[in-house]
């Protein structure tokens, strides 16, 4: 797995998200700490470029060590990000779940949203990274 980018909060040395690309072109976004809505959007904008540039079809959002206002950006995900991600080739996204109640609630609200479901992105929640990546690679042809 290769780190291909990271974003840091202004004035901080530690990234709040790292972009890790596996040899099978699965992208892992590894989140750390409390992240506000504007930075969540910024990270996902960068992810669109990575998805397109590296022919990524599977994404894991590792939010085990993350807390933040995901609920605030759910509508943005539905109206903007997911359609853009599908357009550049993303097929499935898995979430490696956090212990944070608010993060869990946000992820579940997105997963159960009728408009989100209609978009057609494969989307599941996992407790283990290997289960998430196995699901992402089901039916995939590795180049």
Verbal overview:
- The protein is of the alpha/beta class and 143 residues long.
- 43% of the residues lie in helices and 30% in strands.
- It is built from five helices and six strands, in the order βββαβαβααβα.
- It has helices at residues 37-53, 70-87, 101-112, 114-119, 129-137, and strands at residues 2-8, 15-21, 26-34, 58-67, 92-96, 122-126.
- It has a six-stranded mixed β-sheet, sandwiched between helices.
- Helix 1 (37-53) runs parallel beside helix 2 and helix 2 crosses helix 3.
- It starts with a strand and ends in a 6-residue tail after the last helix.
The percent range for helix content is 40-55%
Sheet with most strands: strand arrangement: 1-2-3-4-5-6
- From the spread of the alpha carbons, the general shape counts as globular
Mean pLDDT: 89
Main sheet characteristics? 6 strands, mixed
Strand content: 25-35%
Number of helices: 5
What is the gyration radius calculated from CA atoms? Answer: 14 Å
Chart the SSEs and their pairings.
Layout: E1 2-8, E2 15-21, E3 26-34, H1 37-53, E4 58-67, H2 70-87, E5 92-96, H3 101-112, H4 114-119, E6 122-126, H5 129-137
Parallel strand pairs: 3-4, 4-5, 5-6
Antiparallel strand pairs: 1-2, 2-3
Helix pairs in contact: 1-2, 2-3
Q: Which features does this protein show?
A:
143 residues, alpha/beta
Give a brief rundown of this model.
The protein has 143 residues and is of the alpha/beta class.
């Amino acid at each position: 797995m290769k780190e291909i980018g990271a974003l840091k909060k202004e004035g901080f040395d530690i990234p709040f998200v790292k972009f890790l690309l596996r040899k099978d072109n699965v992208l892992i976004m590894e989140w750390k700490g409390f992240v506000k809505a504007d930075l969540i959007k910024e990270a996902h904008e960068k992810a669109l470029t990575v998805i397109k540039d590296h022919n990524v079809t599977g994404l894991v959002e590792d939010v085990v060590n993350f807390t933040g206002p995901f609920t605030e950006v759910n509508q943005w995900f539905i109206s903007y990000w997911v359609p853009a991600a599908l357009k550049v080739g993303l097929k499935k996204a898995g979430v490696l779940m956090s212990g944070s109640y608010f993060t869990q609630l946000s992820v579940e609200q997105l997963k159960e949203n009728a408009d989100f479901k209609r978009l057609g992105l494969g989307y599941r929640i996992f407790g283990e990274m290997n289960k998430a990546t196995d699901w992402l690679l089901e039916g995939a042809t590795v180049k």
